[in-house]
Amino acid sequence: MTGLLRTVLDFVDAGGATMPPLLLCCLAMWYCILRAWFDLLPASAGALQAEMDRTFACLCGRSGAEDADLAHVLAEAVRSRTRRRLSLAAVLAGAAPLLGLLGTVTGMIDTFDGVARFGMMSPKVISSGISQAMISTQTGLVVAVPGLIAVYFLRRRVHRQRLVPVRLACPADGGNAP
């Protein structure tokens, strides 16, 4: 485990100053994606059902049409929370390649600075700047592409998801649905 951690830290160090924000962007993006995914799981639909049951338990005297309207509003509130998470994940996925590009520019500036100081006779200076540029670019793309694919997949799922209004049994009327 320490060998893997050391390798990751060396990779982050080789990528330059833009790597820590890029990794934070990656972690925040995947947190939002996973939370949205958990919202869309069938087990979460059961939790939503329980939430609707509790809400409708206080509204037993209402008509079926009012219950259906309330169910739609409640379901839309849950979908909007998921859409907000996916929107944030999309923004973070869009920011990742830009952070990678910033790392590329920083690496190339370091390369030209090294050439200005030491001339073309120091390949280590030139190669370290180019390496920094390529590592940050690669990391930005590796973070963004799977994140955008996941966001697209989950957005399609949210769009297709239709929560059916629930008819609840009211304890006051002996358990008969309205």
UniProtKB/TrEMBL annotation:
Keywords: Cell membrane, Membrane, Protein transport, Transmembrane, Transmembrane helix, Transport. It is a multi-pass membrane protein. It holds the Pfam family MotA_ExbB. Signal peptide: none annotated. The chain crosses the membrane at residues 20-38, 88-109, 129-154. InterPro entries: ExbB/TolQ_transport, MotA_ExbB_proton_chnl. Residues 63-161 form the MotA/TolQ/ExbB proton channel domain. It is found in: Cell membrane; Membrane. Its main location: membrane. Belongs to the exbB/tolQ family. This is MotA/TolQ/ExbB proton channel family protein.
